[in-house]
């Protein structure tokens, strides 16, 4: 009986080693398809993750951008209409006109920087997903630079409004008292 158990164990080891050998040879020939499929699955998951993150970031920044750009645009329009009214009343508004023109240019620059940021993020996403030849890392770096420029321009807009435009309005107020 002990001999029969020993024979069964040897036969099992022999058959399993043959099966392992056959599987090893098969995986070297056909195993690349499994690896490629695994890489495609990982790339697909990475694309899905990046797409979701880009969408969240873009939505959040877009909401904030719209809020602040609308405020700056409303400020420009209100000050421009006030300037036109004061100009028609005979006040010297040349300084305010030039400053408002500069303020409007700053608004346009901030909007342009933000659009470049969104474009860069989209290109980065396309590069990760394999839909573009663009280097996703470089595109992401450019997008971050554009976002930084946009933030700086919005800060400059706020500072310009508080310091320059406010002083222009105070100068017009002094013209009233003269």
From TrEMBL:
Residues 26-38 have a biased composition (Low complexity). Keywords: Signal. Residues 26-45 are annotated as: Disordered. Residues 1-22 form the signal peptide. This is Uncharacterized protein. It comes from candidate division WS6 bacterium GW2011_GWC2_36_7.
């Amino acid at each position: 009986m002990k001999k029969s158990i020993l024979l069964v164990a040897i036969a099992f080891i022999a058959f399993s080693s043959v099966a392992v050998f056959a599987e090893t040879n098969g995986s070297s020939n056909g195993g690349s398809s499994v690896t490629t499929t695994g890489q495609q699955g990982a790339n697909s998951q990475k694309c899905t993750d990046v797409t979701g993150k880009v969408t969240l970031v873009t939505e959040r920044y877009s909401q904030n951008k719209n809020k602040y750009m609308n405020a700056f645009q409303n400020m420009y329009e209100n000050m421009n209409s006030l300037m036109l009214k004061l100009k028609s009343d005979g006040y010297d508004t040349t300084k305010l006109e030039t400053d408002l023109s500069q303020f409007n240019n700053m608004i346009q620059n901030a909007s342009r920087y933000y659009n470049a940021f969104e474009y860069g993020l989209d290109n980065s996403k396309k590069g990760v997903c394999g839909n573009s030849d663009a280097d996703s890392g470089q595109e992401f770096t450019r997008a971050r630079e554009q976002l930084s420029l946009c933030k700086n321009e919005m800060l400059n807009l706020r500072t310009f409004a508080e310091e320059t435009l406010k002083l222009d309005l105070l100068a017009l107020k002094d013209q009233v008292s003269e």
